Amino acid sequence: ITWKQGKLLGQGAYGSVHMGMKGDGTLLAVKRLDLSSDKGRHVFDTYNMEKTLLEKLKHPNIVRYIASKVVSKSLAVIWMEYVPGGSVANILQAFGAMSEDILRHYTRQILQGLHYLHSNAVIHRDIKPGNILVTVSGVVKLSDFGSSLRVTSTLQKGSGGLKAVQPVGTPNYIAPEVVRAKNERDYTYNIDIWSLGITAIEMITAELPFQEYTNHMALIWNIGRLSKDKPNAPKPPVPPRSMSEEGRDFILKCLEPDPAMRLHSAELLKHEFV
After folding, report:
1. Is the pLDDT of residue 160 over 50?
2. How far apart are CA 156 and CA 129, in angstroms?
3. Do you know which Pfam families this protein is assigned to (predicted)?
4. Is 69 annotated as ligand-binding?
């Protein structure tokens, strides 16, 4: 691909995303991964994993992969479709809290994207407003698969289905079982459903849950202790009372602290809210 780099669209832990233009004038998004840092080996593995995943994923609610290349010892790039609407995080910044109708419209599409991923043995592991892109016509696309996990390679099948370990993700959106996971403790696809519930509350209120914990360790520790019925344990966030009954019920079902009781994407797609 012959291309020219344009403005910075976003910055991540291992690199940046820029607007790009191909030789024929087509606009695209270019993820640049820095291989020169002390985490270079890990960044290279992340690049390979993300590229391998994106090559196989084809769905209207998943950002479209174009190509990728290791350009030099210090740089790898992934070219993807450019989504000019930006992310849900950008939209919240620009317009504030969303109406319930917009929340419903976006949530249905996020769920469809998640259901496709989960059906293809992929856990996203970092669902949040910054990783959910929106086209100018309101089509939602999940992006940033740098934390994702392909369930076949790294995992063993346990009695409770497919399992994964390693706490990753952005702290406020992490499911309680991810915090509690030791090497022998596990989690599965519906950690993405918890993150969707937190994201939905943020979309409808323009406020991120758990902001009362200013200390990172206190935040993680308390998320790991969340429970609906244990005395003295912190409770999961609740949707605003101003929401419709089905909207509140949907979010509460996503934010079920017990992963065994939390619904999966296929079940939630049948919920009356979406």
Report:
1. no
2. 30
3. Pkinase (PF00069)
4. no
